[in-house]
Design goal:
By secondary structure, the chain is α+β, with helices and mostly antiparallel strands. The protein has 21 helices and 18 strands. The N terminus and C terminus are likely disordered.
């Protein structure tokens, strides 16, 4: 073999250590994929997983993206149940008619003549990409695919950082970036979110590696430094945007960088490729389903019963209509709501208990600080990259005020996940491992208990913020119906109290009982947090407390704090002012109750079988504010 051919395939020194680590990640990921039971290990399916799984199975087994009776039979053979929460839609037939006058081409959409097939109401990019692995390994193929993606992300991120950094410092920061954040929880989810994260990270790598990498021989090095790598980056970013259009601004920085440098043809070429990829993928969606928008048309979600479950059960016989043809902005522009809600959402975006950037993406904070104190902050491509992330975040805060973190009780902010991938490229050259250690330790302080068992943490998302530093952060009261607790059936939106005002309570932890005999037990030596929701604004809550032993109880509900001494076997009555948040056409108040000690009735009261360690028994009612309901 000639010397130039050897150099074309041999890794450079900066890549070699990364290749070994990436190989370990890949082998470990594949081994784990084949050592788990994908049906049981994940603690059931969540959100959109059933849709993506059925799409992947259909693409792998049938070579199509059509929902038919054989698809639900195949799914049932794996899960012994139907695809809860699946999104399906009726297809359309597109007919093109030529006319004598303007418009010369008329597009006519007609109902699908076949009633034995439906189409999936999600983007096809992720399941189609996973289909070859699913065909080879069944359900485990999804996890094998994720293992390849994760190893590829490490390889690309490490290569970028190693181009100008000390190699060990680059590897450590890459490991912290990928594993000391919320990313591992999405690696084990069969969603498109991790796929989109990877496409954005790969896209920015192919665009930006040439900005830092020294000249090197070989075909691979020449490709990475050529305009062709920009074209490939535009393709990957277009693929990500098709999968989730809210990330469209992340494709702008490569184009703007060329314009800033007065490379007008290169910028226009890149913009055309980016737009063409997005349009072509949506066009392909129209060819397959008859609808450009995979979330539009006659779209339904199904629970309990599914089309073609029995030969006589059709699309109209079950399911709930759920079509997304536009963004809803009415609630955003309610009088008196916009600015206060935007301010609160901005605070929650950074420090929210369930979706904050700082706790769930701590390495991004380190990346930002490194960028700010480095001369590299003047690089135009870094500025544009950060602008794309900031623009995407602001877009979500403005246009999705009720679910700017992704909705559905997901861990962290899944709408920031692709932006997090971009934050890696803000990191300037690293000379020591100290920033990497800070990123790793900071991320672990918030998320170590979640990363240890990502399957459990990804499934039981309401359990994650109940302990540790997350517990100290504010609860996102502007999106009460999308907090993880709403997935905890039996402890969310529980009717409580009388009819005026009618209250609903959601328990943010396991430190209090569900309502029993009209009240709630807060356990001894515990602090319980309860989200109290009502349609009418409240001025205060009226309490009745009772305890088996003399107890000191601390209460707060946004309007001040009160410490009450409760004598043993006596009731205490008082009123507590409240301040809450108007959101989603309701008023929401965070009630905190903490008792100093408790009692074990089973050990102290003869013949009493109560096994719990009880602190204080709480009854409360709301008092309506005198003014009319409103924000």
């Amino acid at each position: 073999m000639k010397e130039d051919e050897v150099s074309a395939i041999a890794p450079t020194p900066a890549w070699r250590g990364g290749l070994v680590t990436a190989a370990i990640i890949l082998v470990g990921g594949i081994s784990a994929s084949f050592s788990i039971d994908p049906v049981r290990t994940g603690f059931g399916l969540r959100g959109d997983e059933s849709t993506y799984i059925m799409m992947g199975l259909s693409a792998a087994a049938d070579g199509d993206l059509v929902y038919e009776r054989r698809d639900i039979l195949r799914y049932w053979s794996l899960y012994s149940w139907g695809p809860e929460g699946i999104f399906l839609k009726r297809g359309k037939e597109i007919h093109l008619d030529l006319q004598g006058g303007w418009p010369f081409l008329k597009i006519d959409k007609r109902p699908d003549r076949r009633d034995d097939r439906l189409y999936f109401g999600k983007a096809f990019s992720y399941p189609v990409a996973a289909a070859p692995f699913v065909r080879l390994a069944g359900l485990r193929g999804f996890f094998v695919f994720h293992a390849f993606l994760l190893a590829g992300c490490f390889l690309a991120a490490n290569a970028f950082l190693s181009a100008r950094s000390e190699p060990r410092a680059a590897r450590l920061f890459t490991l912290a970036f990928l594993f000391m954040s919320v990313v591992p929880l999405y690696v084990v989810r069969l969603y498109s979110d991790f796929f989109i994260f990877c496409m954005v990270l790969f896209g920015y790598f192919f665009w930006l590696y040439k900005e830092l990498a020294p000249s090197a021989p070989g075909r691979w090095a020449r490709f990475l430094r050529s305009p062709a790598s920009d074209i490939f980056a535009a393709f990957l970013l277009g693929l990500a945007v098709y999968s989730k259009p809210i990330f469209i601004l992340l494709g702008a920085p490569p184009i703007l960088t060329h314009f800033w440098r007065r490379r007008w043809p290169a910028g226009f070429r890149l913009g055309c490729v980016y737009a063409f990829v997005i349009a072509a993928l949506f066009g392909l969606n129209a060819v397959v389903t008859g609808e450009i928008n995979y979330q539009g048309g006659d779209r339904r979600t199904f629970y309990g019963t599914w089309p073609f479950q029995t030969p006589d059960l059709g699309f109209e016989d079950c399911g709930t209509s759920l079509t997304t043809n536009r963004f809803e902005t009415e609630s955003m522009f309610e009088k008196g709501v916009f600015l206060p809600q935007l301010a609160r959402n901005t605070m929650y975006f950074f420090v929210g208990r369930h979706a904050g950037l700082i706790p769930y993406f701590f390495p991004a904070v380190v990346a930002m600080l490194l960028w700010l104190r480095s001369p590299a902050r003047r690089d135009c491509w870094r500025v544009f990259a950060l602008g794309g992330v900031a623009g995407t975040a602001l877009f979500s805060l403005l246009w999705m005020v009720r679910n700017w973190a992704g909705g559905g009780g997901q861990p962290g902010n899944r709408y920031f996940l692709p932006g997090y991938a971009v934050m890696l490229f803000l990191v300037p050259p690293l000379r020591t491992a100290y920033p990497s250690l800070i990123a790793a330790v900071g991320g672990a302080m918030f998320l170590a208990h979640m990363i240890i068992n990502p399957f459990y943490s990804s499934a039981m998302t309401w359990m994650n913020p109940q302990n540790g530093l997350l517990r100290l952060l504010p609860v996102e009261l502007t999106m009460p119906n999308d907090l993880p607790v709403q997935l905890n059936q039996g402890r969310a939106r529980v009717p409580y109290g009388g009819e005026d005002p009618a209250l609903r309570v959601s328990f943010l932890d396991e430190n209090a009982s569900a309502p029993e005999a009209g009240g709630i037990w807060v356990y001894g030596n515990k602090r319980a947090e309860i989200l109290v929701s009502t349609w009418k604004p409240l001025s205060s809550l009226n309490f009745e407390l009772h305890s088996f032993v003399e107890n000191s109880v601390r209460l707060s509900a946004g309007g001040g704090e009160k410490v009450v001494t409760v004598p043993a076997h006596e009731s205490v009555f008082f009123e507590l002012p409240v301040e809450g948040q108007y959101a989603e056409w309701g008023h929401h108040y965070l009630l905190s109750i903490e008792c100093a000690i408790g009692a074990a009735p089973r050990l102290t009261i003869p013949a009493m079988e109560e096994p719990r360690y009880l602190g204080v028994y709480v009854k409360f009612t709301g008092r309506n504010r005198d003014s009319q309901p409103g924000p």
